Amino acid sequence: MAGDNCSDLLQSPPSFPMSALTSANAKIESWLTANSLTRQLVSSPSSSCITLIFVYIGILLISYETVLYSGYYISLWKLPGNDIFKETPTHCAHVYVRLHTRDAVLKYHFEFGPEDYDPRSPEHGTTLLHLKKKLVECWRDLEHEGEVGVENVEVRRKKRELGDNDEFLCNLGVETGDTIDAYAVENK
Question: Are 102 and 139 in contact (CB under 8 A)?
Answer without folding.
Answer: no
